[in-house]
Sequence to fold (359 residues):
Amino acid sequence: MKKHIYLLTLTTASLFLFSCGSKEKKAKIDNSPTIVVKINKVSESDNNPFLSVSGKIQSTNSADLSTRMMGFVTKVTVNVGDKVKEGQLLVSINNTDLQAKSAQVNAGITEATVAFNNAQKDYNRFKNLFSDSSASQKELDDMTAQYEMAKARLEAAKQMKNEVNAQYAYTNIKAPFNGVVTAKTVEEGDMANPGQPLISLESPVNFEVMTMVPETEISQVKKGTQVNVIVKSINQSIKGKVSEVSTSAKNTGGQYLVKIALDETNTKILSGMFATVQFPIEKRTTTELVLIPTEAIVTKGQLSGVYTVSQSNTALLRWLRLGRTYGDQVEILSGLSADESYIVSSQGKLFNGAKVSIQ
Fold:
């Protein structure tokens, strides 16, 4: 009987100690500092019944200039942002080997020219002799063959000269059109390799918008359709016209590429700006986009989430499935609904269960 009482006493003491430990642990959590946070409500796309898609502005005329020759860069005459004219020298590459080859070709042309002139004289002489019956047909045929071979050697030497001249064009990189330098990846003394982009050039005159249209509406988009293009960064609306419509989404993830040529040129427009294209087409779906700023997204490995505030005023990490990016905002496909709020910034490091106070 005493043994049973002893065991009961130990069990009661253990439960008491466990309970005390839990209370002490809970007290530690409760005594943790409160993190001040700022929350935002989830924004939705507008209720415009017509199709609106996001796109990016680019120049209709752009080029990445490279070379087919390997050699050291001896001169770079431009910097990013410089305006250049068609035919202006941009980059020079060492061409000592090419100069030696050019001298050899010129010597070959001189030699072939002299041989051709002599063969032509002999051919004309034997032709006259044959007319006077002073030369046989065999002698005329042999002389004709020598003349044709000399002519072919001269032509081959001239074609080699054309080849060398074409290679010279790849040692002196010139602007193919009037434009602005947008990128420079080479400096004097660098080694230029075949196919390596050296200078990027864009024409700041004509611009177009590249956008993706969902498969539910692509059948309604026609070439030549007038559209409205809103450029938020400069707070302007510009008219445009559909110039290209792709008929395949094989490499674009179910979205169809559409290009819009802008009707007017505005000096404030820059390549790379985001724009919203409004098509005069009624939406076939009324699903609205749920958007939040990209700065509010928390990334851990390949997972993306956002912190929300629970009913007990603690931080709660919600994992999300993200969609397309629209400027500085990203589409939320699942994990957060339109009637919820999320933490956009905090005055301390957040973690699951952290006590928060809304600013």
